[in-house]
């Protein structure tokens, strides 16, 4: 079996690409070598190959390197092929068969969530969410699940003041401090909820799906009709457990890792909030 450790040049080239993608702008080759723990000679050699093939670009006046056009083309191809949605669809279909309620997958798009997969349970009431629909992230369970695992600075940038909050049915957080408190509760519970904040008479539970760095790339949610009162804790916990198992399956399918695994590998969660 071929692994990255058995092909070190390929592994190092991919590490350089991932490093460049994580930077705010072009960086010196010396910084790449230092931060990745690679010999400078190897880094320069790999950068030359990446530049030649268009995956990196050299800025000679600045003596720095950044991502090239070929890297952009790869990202665009990923978006066109929609692998996240393709990999999620059978997982959500099995989830719906298990809980007999509708489920969906949403990704963060600015201050909104964008629904990319929607699996409807047979005989259940129609929902406002559908593929391509956008809703305020702070009001949806899927959005809250994602926001709870983002760095504090990211959440502050998205919701800097009260004017950043959209009112849908007179419920949900209206200020940055209220949102912070809600996200603390999400992290404490291990899943996010909403009750009537998207559509009166419906509630949702959701968990985040994480990529290979432990970053939350999507929210996986179950939506179900409720009475006027808050759903009982046992039912909500049961739905949350089912969503967590489905999210773990999807995380494995996309090669992701849990935030806990990321912490053990050296990435601190102290920046999250």
Defining key terms:
single chain; 273 residues; Arc Repressor Mutant, subunit A; two-stranded antiparallel ribbon; 45% helix; 18% strand; elongated; disordered C terminus
Determine the CATH topology of the largest domain.
Answer: Beta-Lactamase
Order of helices and strands: HHHEEHHEEEHHHEEEHH
Beta strand count: 8
Distance between the termini: 40 Å
**Overall tally of structural domains:** 2
- Given as residue ranges, the uncertain stretches (5+ residues, pLDDT < 50) are 265-273
What is the CATH architecture term of the largest domain? 2-Layer Sandwich
Principal-axes geometry comes out as elongated
Report strand order across the widest sheet.
5-4-3-8-7-6
Helix/strand class: alpha+beta
Gyration radius, in Å: 21 Å
Question: SSE layout and pairings?
Answer:
Elements: H1 8-22, H2 29-36, H3 40-52, E1 56-59, E2 64-67, H4 69-81, H5 83-99, E3 102-109, E4 112-119, E5 134-136, H6 141-148, H7 152-158, H8 176-189, E6 192-195, E7 202-210, E8 216-225, H9 233-253, H10 259-264
Antiparallel strand pairs: 1-2, 3-4, 3-8, 4-5, 6-7, 7-8
Helix pairs in contact: 1-3, 2-3, 5-9, 6-8
Region (Disordered): 250-273
Domain IclR-ED: 70-256
Domain HTH iclR-type: 7-69
Structure, described:
The protein is α+β, with helices and mostly antiparallel strands and 273 residues long. The protein is built from ten helices and eight strands. The protein has two domains: 4-75, Winged helix-like DNA-binding domain superfamily/Winged helix DNA-binding domain (Arc Repressor Mutant, subunit A); 82-264, GAF domain (Beta-Lactamase), CATH 3.30.450.40. It has helices at residues 8-22, 29-36, 40-52, 69-81, 83-99, 141-148, 152-158, 176-189, 233-253, 259-264, and strands at 56-59, 64-67, 102-109, 112-119, 134-136, 192-195, 202-210, 216-225. The strands form two sheets. The protein has a six-stranded antiparallel sheet with strand order 5-4-3-8-7-6. β3 and β4 form a beta hairpin. α2 (29-36) crosses α3 (40-52) and α6 (141-148) packs across α8.
